[in-house]
């Protein structure tokens, strides 16, 4: 619900052109996230379920999964830049904005890689409370950031930066939760 409210606020605060840029950034983020996962998160759940009580084995699995996702991420980057170029080609005067959108989007996906793998760990342990906590923390930070910054500086870059901030909070909370 918090993320839905945040999304509606972003829709309300941004101009049509800025919202279009934000939506394109969301598409780029989805492409990069899907390209860098390629089933790794599901593999962590499937393989990790058999060794749920073995912290050492799970730690090795998580480290391997993050390394694998980062390798896939490296392969995905050129496709994201190509898609961005094709999407923003008519925005000739906004090359800086396009580059900033792509870099912020890729940074968000980089952070989300570890969050997704750690989410898989919480799923292995059936930790719905932990999943709810870090989802709520990330959503509340994004909502507060939208209210604080997007209302003052309503731009796609501001909204994308708030996604990055939410991903960083989710990474911190998920990391703390997974150490337990």
* Stretches with pLDDT under 50, minimum 5 residues: none
Give the integer mean of the pLDDT values. Answer: 87
Cα distance, first to last residue?
Answer: 27 Å
Q: Give me the number of helical elements.
A: 7
Main traits of this protein?
180 residues, mainly alpha, 7 helices, 86% helix, 0% strand
Descriptive report:
- The protein has 180 residues and is mainly alpha-helical.
- 86% of the residues lie in helices and 0% in strands.
- It has seven helices and no strands.
- It has helices spanning 2-13, 16-37, 40-49, 55-88, 95-124, 128-150, 156-178.
- The mean pLDDT is 87.
What would a concise description of this structure say?
This protein is mainly alpha-helical and 180 residues long.
Tell me the layout of helices and strands.
Layout lengths: L1 H12 L2 H22 L2 H10 L5 H34 L6 H30 L3 H23 L5 H23 L2
Helix pairs in contact: 1-6, 2-4, 2-5, 2-7, 3-4, 3-5, 4-5, 5-7, 6-7
């Amino acid at each position: 619900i918090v993320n839905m409210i945040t999304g509606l606020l972003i829709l309300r605060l941004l101009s049509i052109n800025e919202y279009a840029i934000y939506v394109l950034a969301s598409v780029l983020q989805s492409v990069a996230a899907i390209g860098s996962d390629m089933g790794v998160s599901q593999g962590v759940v499937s393989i990790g379920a058999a060794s749920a009580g073995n912290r050492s084995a799970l730690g090795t699995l998580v480290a391997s999964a993050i390394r694998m996702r980062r390798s896939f991420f490296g392969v995905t980057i050129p496709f994201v830049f190509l898609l961005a170029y094709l999407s923003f080609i008519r925005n000739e005067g906004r090359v800086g904005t396009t580059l900033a959108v792509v870099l912020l989007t890729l940074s968000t996906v980089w952070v989300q890689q570890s969050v997704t793998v750690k989410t898989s760990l919480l799923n292995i342990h059936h930790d719905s409370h932990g999943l709810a906590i870090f989802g709520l923390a990330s959503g509340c930070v994004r909502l507060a950031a939208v209210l604080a910054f997007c209302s003052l500086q309503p731009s796609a870059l501001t909204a994308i930066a708030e996604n990055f901030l939410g991903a960083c909070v989710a990474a911190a909370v998920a990391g703390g939760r997974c150490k337990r």
